[in-house]
Structures are given as structure tokens and as C-alpha cells.
Amino acid sequence: MTAAELTLIDNQVVIACTVVEAMQLLDGPDQIASWFRAARGETSTRITSSRGDCVLERTSEWWHPADQVLTVDGRIGDIHVHAHLTLMAVVHSISNGHVQHGTEIWVHAELGRGSQARRVARIITTAFAHGLEHLRLELDRSPNVG
To answer: Which one, of 7, 2, 26, 3, lies nearest residue 106 by Cα?
Structure first.
């Protein structure tokens, strides 16, 4: 793998709720981390999966409430990681002339080259899949905001 050959991990889900409803369960980086089986510390975030765990050493982290984006840049061992979670309002469906709004939640990560890149990619992929499914089920059960 050359420096130009990044490992890209994407996952997304569309939920039949508004961005405001989604934000009630994703109100900041601590809550977002908890959905993805991650525990945030002062200088690191531990991401866990059934196959093991890895520690993201944060070099920078930004929460952009206006854009509904959490961005993290850091390292897992010798692997550079850039990741972000984005919420976007979408038209979920149109039936019988009624428009139903939804929320599209994207999780994207770019992993740089490193000797443990495959193991890290497996753990992060598992965490994303678990987190998005957990979010979808929880938001489906939550009452609608008036």
C-alpha cells in the first residue's frame, strides 16, 4: 500500500426522523462515541469490537453543531486516521402526495498505511455497523418531536 492508497471505510443509514430528533440522541462527541462502542478519555478514544480493541490517539477533534459533523484526526499505532460522522436531512419517501422527511447519517473513515491496517479496519468497520444499527433501532423507538 502506498501513501496514496488509503483504506476507505464508509457506512450510512437513512432513518425516518428529523435531524433534530437524531440530534437528541447524538448530542455531542461523547454520545456519538458511546453508540460506536467507543469510550472517550482526555487524550484517547478506545474503540472496541468482539474481535479486540484499539486506541485512537487523538491529535485533533472538532464538533461542528451547525453542520452536524464530528471530525476526528489521530493515530492508531502507526496508522493515521481521519474520520467524520455527518447528519443530513433527506426526503425519506413520498407516498399519496405526502412527503416524509428522514435523516441520513454517514460515517466515513480514511486509514493511512500501517502494519496493522487490516486489523484496525475490521474493528472500525464492526464498530460502524454496530453503531448505525443501534442508532436506527433506537430512533425507530423514540417518540416523534412535535
So the answer is: 26
What's this model's pTM, rounded to 2 decimal places?
Answer: 0.78
pLDDT at residue 70 is higher than 80: yes
Structurally, the chain folds into a number of domains equal to: 1
Whether 87 is in a domain gets the answer yes
Phi, psi of 86 (to 5 degrees): -130, 135
Distance, CA of 68 to CA of 72 (rounded, Å): 14
CA count, 13 A, side-chain hemisphere, 7: 18
Distance between CA 92 and CA 118 in Å, rounded? 35
